[in-house]
């Protein structure tokens, strides 16, 4: 079963987007090869769903953070090598001789470029093999344990490098017969190993790049626990794009599974909720997280409702779109899935009375699903007071506002309780809007 996160959630949290410089993907996309970028994209699209797989991937990143190495490969050489191996599959020396010989004759007679392209593929492949040998020596100096994460890649490198027939500088002026020999070895004898080697090189690129980002931004690695543990605890939580942000602690358990969040506009509620969602998503990928420490039980997925759009084509108002979003989440929760749910300003598209009643009823109902964790924010603090009287599984916290000379200041630090801060009119007056009118 794969981890669930629909398009609404991915958009709310700005998780994906190769061409979106503000996406979480862009934050980690410091890889040097297209193959690694494709692999990184796959990792973002498919978070992991069992604790062992998550912890094993985290261990890979952590290793390269503790043992930094330079990625010695040229992206264009790797692409040329990959294309070369895909084009050629000569199983015997005679077939290799026939193919290379035919292209050499065409070069001499009609100045065809196919032979030089073949030579370029051979040279690129030899350079990559040479780079693998150099990197393997660097890694072997760093560690001696047999369970180090690069050992599978190192075994393939050693298998290819041991063959004396592959010796020789790729920059040398080789004869046609030498090119035939290299072509036979690369596309016939070692084609399977070299294609597997390319895959592992792209993995190394991702591991090195992500570990470097984690170290530079002081991220940590979460510990994944089995689903039945039913907890999520994180300290020093911040948004991954904010390096000097105020941090907070988040904690959820089966008997304390709802965080009811209040605070004035601009107090930081949305940023905190997005930070929590990104934190949990990255943790399920096995990626470093923007927290000082985290441990969590594996969940089935995450849903958010932060920027729910109306739909003019279907005639949906903003409120009806909100209702449909809550319905979709309710169906998933009632279906027995273990989920992390974010609702930012429940039912803000309707009047205060209906919003109060709906927030009270929906929050009470969701609190009964102890296998799911919820963050629900609202401006309607009266609903919080009503919930406080009857629900023990709900934790009430707020982001405070401090007034200084009629100007609101925000601490961005969670406090226990429910706030009644309302600074909307003060902000409007400070901007001089009423004076303009």
From TrEMBL:
Name of this protein: DNA mismatch repair protein
Keyword vocabulary terms for this entry: ATP-binding, DNA-binding, Nucleotide-binding
InterPro entries found in the cross-reference section: DNA_mismatch_repair_MutS_C, DNA_mismatch_repair_MutS_sf, MutS, P-loop_NTPase
The species this protein was found in: Chitinophaga oryzae
Single GO molecular function: ATP binding
SMART domains in the record: MUTSac (SM00534)
Residue span(s) of domain DNA mismatch repair proteins mutS family: 256-435
Annotated GO biological process: mismatch repair
Nucleotide-binding among keywords: yes
Pfam families, per database record: MutS_V
């Amino acid at each position: 079963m794969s981890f669930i996160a629909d398009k609404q959630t991915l958009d709310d949290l700005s998780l994906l987007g190769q061409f979106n410089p503000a996406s979480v993907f862009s934050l980690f996309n410091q890889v040097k090869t297209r193959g690694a970028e494709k692999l990184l994209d796959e990792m973002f699209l498919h978070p992991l769903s069992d604790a062992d797989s998550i912890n094993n991937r985290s261990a890979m990143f952590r290793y390269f953070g503790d043992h930094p190495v330079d990625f010695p490969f040229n992206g264009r050489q790797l692409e040329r090598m990959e294309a070369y191996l895909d084009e050629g599959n000569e199983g015997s020396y005679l077939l290799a001789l026939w193919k290379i010989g035919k292209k050499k004759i065409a070069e001499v007679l009609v100045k065809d470029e196919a032979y030089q392209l073949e030579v370029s593929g051979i040279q690129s492949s030899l350079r990559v093999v040479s780079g693998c040998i150099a990197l393997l020596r660097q890694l072997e100096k760093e560690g001696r344990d047999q369970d180090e994460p690069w050992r599978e890649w190192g075994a393939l490198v050693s298998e290819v490098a041991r063959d004396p027939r592959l010796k020789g500088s790729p920059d040398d002026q080789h004869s046609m017969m030498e090119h035939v020999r290299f072509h036979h070895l690369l596309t016939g004898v070692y084609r399977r190993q070299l294609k597997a080697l390319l895959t592992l090189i792209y993995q190394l690129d991702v591991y090195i790049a992500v570990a470097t980002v984690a170290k530079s931004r002081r991220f940590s690695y979460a510990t994944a626990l089995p689903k039945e543990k039913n907890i999520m605890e994180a300290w020093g939580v911040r948004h991954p794009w904010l390096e000097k942000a105020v941090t907070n602690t988040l904690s959820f358990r089966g008997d304390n599974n709802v965080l009811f969040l209040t605070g004035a506009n601009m107090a930081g509620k949305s940023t905190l909720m997005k930070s929590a969602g990104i934190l949990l998503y990255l943790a399920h990928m096995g990626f470093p997280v923007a927290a000082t420490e985290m441990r969590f039980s594996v969940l089935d997925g995450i849903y958010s409702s932060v920027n729910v759009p109306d739909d003019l084509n279907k005639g949906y108002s903003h409120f009806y779109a909100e209702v449909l979003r809550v319905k979709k989440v309710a169906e998933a929760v009632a279906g027995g899935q273990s989920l992390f749910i974010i609702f930012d300003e429940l039912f803000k598209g309707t009047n205060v009375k209906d919003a109060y009643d709906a927030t009270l009823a929906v929050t009470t109902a969701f609190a009964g699903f102890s296998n799911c964790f919820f963050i629900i924010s609202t401006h309607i603090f009266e609903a919080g007071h009503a919930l406080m009287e009857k629900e023990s599984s709900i934790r009430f916290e707020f982001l405070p506002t401090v007034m200084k000379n009629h100007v609101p200041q925000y601490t961005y630090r969670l406090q226990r309780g429910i706030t009644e801060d309302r600074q909307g009119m003060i902000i409007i007056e400070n901007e001089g809007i009423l004076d303009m009118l």
